[in-house]
Please model this.
Amino acid sequence: MNFFTCPVCKERFSQVGRSLICPNRHCSDLSKRGYVNLLRPSKSGGARHGDDKLMVEARKSFLNAGFYAPLLTAVCDTVRAETGISAVLDAGCGEGYYTQGLRETLTKANPDVRVYGIDVSRDAIHAASLRDRELRLAVASIFDLPIADGSIDILINLFAPYDSAEFSRVLRSHGLLIRVFPAERHLWELKSVVYDTPYENEIDTFLLDGFTLISKTPLAFPLHLDRAEYIDTLFKMTPYYYKTGREGQARLAALPSLDTHAEFYLAVYRRC
Model:
C-alpha cells in the first residue's frame, strides 16, 4: 500500500504491521479485511457518503450475474493494449467488480502490477475487500485522492464523479485515463416504465483540462431480464430508484420480465 498518502500531511505512508504510518507519525489502521479509511472527518462532517448498503448489494448481485460483462471486456481490452504498467487506480471503484477484472487481466501478464481502488462509500469498499483480497483499497474521496503524485500509470473512472486536476496530479506523464458513463438513452425502456415522462441523460463535454482525448467509443448491448429479481437489482443499483415515486416502482415490480438496453460511452485520454 505504499502509494497511499496521509490525508493530513500528504506524505507517503509506510506499512508497519497493521498500520500505515507517515513520516509525521500520523497513523491509519488497516481493517480486518485489509482496507483503510482515509476519509477525513473534517471533509465528511460525520455524514454517510456514497452508495448505501442497498445499492451496493444490488449492484453486486446484478454484476455477478454477468449482465455488464461486455463493458468489463471492453475496459480490459483497452487496458491490455497499454505497455509498461505497474500501478492502476480505480477511482470510484464501488464494490470492485471492474477492479477485480482489471487486476486479473493485468496480473496474468505481470504479477507485480498493483491495482488500487478508492470509493467514498465504506459499504462499497468493504464489499470490494470481500470480492478480492489482492486489491489495495481505501475509503476516500475522488476530490482528495490519497495517492502520491505521478505514481499511477492508468486511472479508471467508471460511473463516478471526476476531478481532472486530481486525476492529472496522480497520473504519470502521458498516463492513461479511461472514463465510462451512461449514454443519452441508457436503460431507456426501464425509465419508460417508472417515469411518466422519461428523460435522456445529459452528456457534458468530452474535453478535460490537462488531457488529450484519444477516443470516444459508444458501447451498447441488450439486456434481457427474465426474472423479477434481475429487474429489481438493476433498478436498485441506479439513482432512478431514489427518484421514483411509489406508482412507478409498483409498475416495475409488476413486470415478469424486461428487455432494455445498456448504452455507454468509453472515453480514453492521455495526460498532457
